[in-house]
Design brief:
The complex is a heterodimer of chains A (about 270) and B (about 260). With about 270 residues, chain A is α/β, with parallel strands linked by helices. Chain A contains 6 helices and 12 strands. Helices cover about 25% and strands about 20% of the residues of chain A. In chain A, helix 1 crosses helix 6 and helix 2 crosses helix 5. An 8-stranded mixed beta sheet of chain B has the order 1-3-4-5-2-6-8-7, with helices on one face. Classes of the chains: A alpha/beta (about 270), B alpha/beta (about 260). Chain B: It comes from Kluyveromyces dobzhanskii CBS 2104.
């Protein structure tokens, strides 16, 4: 069954860090597939990331084809896992999430005939857009699943549902079942994931069989440990995802800035 | 004396009926996309053999006293229906003060000017992350990349606060990266062989400041591109430094480090 891993840009960028771990730990088997349209994202261009001392870093094959830089949105594929992995390096421009999901993500899932979608997310403990559970608010993770095979005429249910009057009774919340220990029990329309799931369900084709959601409560700061924890949790959902040790790329070293400490003050600028 | 009205007794506590934040009822509806126009529409690019793209914060590299630019056109980006503006704010509440309050009927326009210097096309990109919605810049830079994409020799200057020395884009090492409108042009260019100089800077996008080491290296680099004969170089360097100092002195103390 072909699957895709989608990291949403959210608190602490934990989803992106987790995808970094997945891609760079399995750099020998993950192939760069293509760059995706970044019209709806903030711009980003950087050098190709790698793990020090690896004989086959990520992009080892694409370098031959002339790929020089990393871009905001890239797709990778592992044949062993039959898994596509999306890496999103910059956030969607606020207000344009609908266009991004409808014009980039949903067509991608259709084009590659994806059967299973796994979405990574994170939430700050005080995030006003997350409807926290009144009983499980101390738990670290939230997981939800939707089996599309068990639903009939899902697209019909979505018609006339563009205007949300009540998050809790929206179709997205009707079809997703949260685990009993999740820190949230439903999705709020203010969460990006709500928009993604709405468009995914609304426009899904017959190939798509299941959608899984995994979110973690985080506090912004050094979120590398959160990423390792999400990775461990993710490996319970995707069998044999990680073989060996989780390794972080060199870019992580500069999370708190690689610049030398300023020693002077020249023309009003630290130098 | 306290007085209770009968209907108040029947009311549920607020937290039981209302979510803390009301969801936007139109959150699944597409936002308006910007429109981009090129003036003049039939701008001919074929006479140009070189192209230089730089942000407005580096305009001091083009002193009027020595570089005689001729205006040849402009690209405009318009975002209307600004009642949607609320959700596009980079920081909530950012525009709620003084004259930044935008009426629902108002349009938002950004312009990039195109100039000519002999057979060189110069595009000056107006960046301002505080004022300009990123989506407008995204659409405009894609249009510009399409327009100038065919020019053989291209030099692009882009700011970055992630490094300390002047570097070519291909020499960056993780976690260094670039962002902003000019990065968007690079992403949209059909060919990836442009010479890209990453200029170390400090401050928000559109309000960057540069230290002397960077300015010195940059002026040297640009003099080889812009000066037609060697004796012009000294004058060019003097003029650039003068403009940079004027530019720096007027705004450096304006709030960056207060």
């Amino acid at each position: 069954m072909s699957s895709i891993l989608i990291p949403l840009v959210s608190t602490g960028n934990v989803s992106q860090l987790c995808v970094d771990l997945v891609l760079h730990s399995g750099s020998e088997e993950f192939q760069f597939v293509k760059e995706l349209d970044s019209t709806w994202l903030h711009s980003f261009l950087g050098p190709l990331d790698f793990v020090e001392g690896t004989s086959k870093p990520l992009y080892h094959e694409s370098k031959v084809s002339g790929k020089q830089f990393t871009t905001p949105l890239e797709l990778f594929y592992s044949k062993r896992l039959n898994l596509y992995v999306l890496q999103q390096r910059s956030p969607v421009i606020a207000g344009y999430e609908n266009q991004f999901f409808k014009e980039v993500i949903v067509p991608l899932i259709k084009a590659y005939e994806i059967e299973s979608v796994i979405v990574l997310d994170s939430a700050g403990a005080l995030d006003p857009s997350v409807p926290f559970s009144s009983t499980n608010y101390q738990n670290q993770f939230a997981t939800a699943k939707c089996q599309l095979q068990s639903l009939d005429n899902i697209s019909l249910q979505f018609q006339d549902m563009l205007s949300i009057q009540d998050d809790k009774h929206s179709v997205v919340n009707k079809v997703f079942k949260f685990d009993s220990a999740s820190f949230q029990e439903s999705f709020s329309a203010d969460q990006s994931v709500f928009k993604l799931f709405h468009h995914l369900l609304c426009q899904s084709d017959r190939n798509l069989k299941s959608i899984t959601y995994l979110s973690k409560i985080v506090h912004e700061g050094d979120n590398s440990w959160d990423a390792f924890q999400v990775c461990e949790r993710l490996s319970l959902m995707i069998e044999n995802l990680i073989q060996g040790q989780l390794t972080a790329p060199v870019s992580w070293k500069g999370v708190y800035g690689a610049r030398p400490i300023a020693s002077g003050f020249d023309q009003g600028i630290y130098s | 004396m306290l007085s209770f009205k009968q209907w108040q007794n029947d009311q549920l506590p607020r937290h039981q009926i209302d979510p803390v934040i009301q969801s936007d009822p139109y959150s699944l509806v597409d936002k308006t996309s910007p429109t981009v126009t090129l003036e003049p529409a039939n701008l001919q690019i074929s006479p140009f053999n070189h192209c230089i793209v730089l942000p407005t914060s580096l305009k001091w590299l083009l002193p009027k006293s020595i570089i005689n630019l001729v205006h040849i056109g402009e690209i405009s980006g318009t975002l209307s229906n600004m009642n949607e503006w609320d959700s596009m704010k980079p920081v909530p509440g950012m525009y709620d003060t003084e004259d930044h309050i935008i009426n629902s009927t108002e349009q938002f326009v950004i312009k990039y000017n195109l100039w000519k210097l002999q057979d060189t096309l110069i595009a000056i990109i107006d960046e301002n992350e505080v004022k300009y919605p990123a989506i407008v810049s995204n659409f405009m830079t894609r249009e510009l990349a399409q327009l100038i994409g065919g020019i053989e020799d291209m030099t692009v200057l882009v700011n970055s606060d992630r490094l300390t020395d002047l570097k070519n884009l291909s020499d960056l090492v993780p976690p260094e990266f670039i962002t902003g409108s000019i990065t968007n042009i690079l992403l949209a260019l059909p060919k990836k062989d442009a010479k890209v100089i990453v200029v170390p800077s400090e401050g928000p996008i559109g309000f960057e400041k540069y230290n002397f080491t960077v300015v010195d290296a940059l002026v040297d680099e640009m003099s080889t591109l812009l000066c037609s004969y060697p004796s012009q170089t000294d004058y060019y360097v003097t003029e650039c430094l003068k403009l940079w100092k004027l530019d720096g002195c007027t705004t450096t103390q304006g709030g960056l480090y207060i």
